[in-house]
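Table 4 source record.
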Amino acid sequence: MALGSIADILFQWENIGFFDLILPFLLVFAIVFGILSYMNIFGSNRAVHVIIALILGLLSIRAQFFSAFLAEIAPRLGVGLTILLAILILIGLFTPEEHSKTISWVLMGIAAVILIVILSQLYNVFGYFTGGLGFTSSELIGWITMIVLLVAILIIVVVASQKGKSKLGKTGPLWAPVRGT
C-alpha cells in the first residue's frame, strides 16, 4: 500500500468539504464558546454555552457567503501577519529599549494599513464598491492614507505644542498614551 503525499490528503479533505464546512464551523464554535465562557453570561452552565455555540456554528456554515469570506480572508490575513511579524523582528533587532513606545505606535499604524489593504481587496473580490459608492480599492486606499496622514500630522502638532506645558494640559487624560506620558 503506497502512502499518498500531504497534498493528496489535503485534496481529499477539500473534496469532502473539510475546508468549506468543518473548519468554519469549528472556528465559529470556538470563538462563540470562548466568548460565552469568558463573559459568563449564563453562569457556569457549560451546556448552554455549547448549545449556543453549536447553533451559531451550524447557522454560519449554512450560508455559503461565510465560507467564501473565510476562504478569501484567511490567506490575506496570513500574508499580512507574516509581513507584520517580519517588520517586528527587524525593528526588535535594531532599536533600543527606550524607543519601544514609539515603535509600538508605528507597528499599530503598519497593522492598520495592512488591515485596510486586506479589507479593500475583499471589497473588490465581493464587489461591494462596484455598485452605489463608486470607489475602487486604489481610490479608497488613497483617501484613507490621506486621512491617516492628516491625523498623524495633527497629533504631532499637538504633542509638539504641549512640550513645555503641564502634563494634562487642556486635552485631558485620553491623550496621555499619544503624548507618551
